[in-house]
Specification:
heterodimer, A: about 110 residues, mainly beta, 7-stranded mixed sheet, 4-stranded antiparallel sheet, about 55% strand, B: about 110 residues, 12 strands, globular
Chain lengths: ~110, ~110
């Protein structure tokens, strides 16, 4: 069965650089969530999209932005990277009318 | 908003031992409840879920029952294997997002 695809799987950046993380949801899933998981921490909700519109916002820094495109894939744009942004970033997708979130494998971002 | 509390600290036990990981939730209303498992270096995998009071979720020998009266969703397995070594997260869905507990590292020793 198709799963959520995230790219890249690993990313290394310098401080103050920018990064773009991509998420491709499961076909027919129209809702996408982004989570950030710091080392040894639980995942924290960042932002979500439903039908290409932002539906909810969590603890996402102003330096980050995200959007969902017409094909339902989503991109998380991160600017002015800081050391503390080093984390695993997960994307999850949900089928319309359901509440079960299917997680991608994550993108491990390391900021040096 | 919704929140989830898991018992503190890692859990180390021998193969074939009984596993219990406690989870309690606070929420307005009756959220759907989930257990996710994360193997080393991997993403989150849904282990089981329950959507209403008294529902029992089960998968791969793991079970959890949605207890409204104690606001709990404890995870149990009767006989663990080394391959069950992972981090286990309890989560509740409410306000259009998942709220996770802090997670418990489970280490099963042969």
């Amino acid at each position: 069965a198709a799963g959520v695809i995230q790219s890249p799987r690993h990313l290394i950046k310098e401080k103050r650089e920018t990064a773009t993380l991509k998420c491709y949801p499961i076909p027919r899933h129209d809702t996408v969530y982004w989570y950030q998981q710091g080392p040894g921490q639980d995942p924290q909700f960042l932002i979500s999209f439903y039908e290409k519109m932002q539906s909810d916002k969590g603890s996402i820094p102003d330096r980050f932005s995200a959007q969902q495109f017409s094909d339902y894939h989503s991109e998380l744009n991160m600017s002015s990277l800081e050391l503390g942004d080093s984390a695993l970033y997960f994307c999850a997708s949900v089928e319309r009318g359901e509440d079960e979130q299917f997680f991608g494998p994550g993108t491990r971002l390391t900021v040096l | 908003g919704n929140s989830v509390t898991q018992m503190e600290g890692p859990v180390t036990l021998s193969e074939e031992a009984f596993l219990t990981i406690n989870c309690t939730y606070t929420a307005t209303g009756y959220p759907s409840l989930f257990w996710y498992v994360q193997y080393p270096g991997e993403g989150l995998q849904l282990l089981l879920k329950a959507t209403k009071a008294d529902d029992k979720g089960s998968n791969k020998g793991f079970e959890a029952t949605y207890r409204k009266e104690t606001t709990s969703f404890h995870l149990e397995k009767g006989s663990v294997q080394v391959s069950d070594s992972a981090v286990y997260f309890c989560a509740s869905y409410g306000n259009n997002r998942l709220a996770f507990g802090k997670g418990n590292q489970v280490v099963v020793i042969p």
